[in-house]
Amino acid sequence: MSRSLKKGPYIDEKLLKKVKKLGPRSTEIIKTWSRACTITPEMIGFTFGVHNGKDFIPVKVAEDMVGHKLGEFSPTTKFSRHGGKMQRQLETKRVKK
C-alpha cells in the first residue's frame, strides 16, 4: 500500500544531507540502511550502497528510477535453484555437453 498523498513521499533527511554535501559528479558510494526511502530527482547520478541485510549493494540512480524505493533495487534473497528430479536431469545434461 502506498503512502498517503497528503503526507508526501518518505525521504530520509540524513540521506538528503549526504547527497547535498557531496557535489554533483561524485563517485563516492553513499551507504544507507534506509530501503524505504523514495528516490527523488536530487539523487540522480549518485551511487548508493543499499543494505540488503548482509552487504551493501551498489545502486546507481538513473532518471527512470525516480518515484521508486531504494530497496526495490537491492534484493534481500538469493535464488539458488529449483530442486527435484527434473532439475538434476537438466544439470547432468549440461555437464555432459
Structural summary, described in words:
The protein is 22% helix and 14% strand. The longest helix is centred in the C-terminal third of the chain and has 12 residues, at 85-96. It is of the alpha+beta class. The chain has a 3-stranded mixed beta sheet, covered by helices on one side. The chain has a single domain, classed as 30s Ribosomal Protein S19, Chain A. The model has no long low-confidence stretch (mean pLDDT 89). The protein has helices spanning 13-21, 85-96, and strands at 29-32, 47-51, 56-60. It is built from 2 helices and 3 strands; from the N terminus they run αβββα. It starts with 12 loop residues before the first helix and ends with a helix. β2 and β3 (56-60) form a beta hairpin.
Which properties best describe this structure?
alpha+beta, 97 residues, 2 helices, single chain
Kindly summarize this structure in a few lines.
This protein is an alpha+beta fold. It has two helices and three strands; from the N terminus they run αβββα. Strand 2 and strand 3 form a beta hairpin.
